[in-house]
Amino acid sequence: MSRFELFSAAVGQMKISSVAGRIKLASFVMAALVGACTVSDTGLGPARDASSTMCPAGLTNQANWPAGTTSTSCTKPCGPDDKGIRSCSQTDMPTCQATSGCVCLEAPCVACANCAFLTISDCYVPTNAASAPDCAKEVTQGGACSPACGHKLCLEADGKTGCVCNAQGKYACATWGETTWK
Q1: Cα–Cα distance for residue pair 41/45, rounded to 1 Å
Q2: Which of 65, 67, 76, 138 lies 20 to 30 Å from 145 when distance is taken between CA atoms?
Q3: Phi-psi label, residue 62: left if phi above 0, alpha if psi -120 to 50, beta otherwise
């Protein structure tokens, strides 16, 4: 091999090493960013348990933990248009019964955090949360509404479901607490 060929091979190897190093660095940076911007009960916060699974259908806060499931925690979509995530885990009977609304008859019970959002459109943040009126009879999930992104919340007859008009001019309904999406 001539000196030029040897030099070219060495430079080519250095270029490959440099690219591989940049890819590793970029992967590390992306992992750090994803870990730093995860969902918690307050919005942005500590990373969720990576082993957490999706909650089984029908899982209800403050009810019995589903029999036959092996996980002790799970996550499920929540909020208007399912834009948020809610973490649920097992709790004991006394802890459940210490909160109003507990219908758990046998431990373990379900304890879910409030709905948390990594980011949420202004459309889902009502300006009238303190004095939300009752919804009209025609208000239904996905039904047409106006004005789009009107920032107004109404409460359905159950007193627990709030609806807002999203940016697409459709009602987005979800469980509403006293001041936040549940």
Answers
A1: 8
A2: 76
A3: left
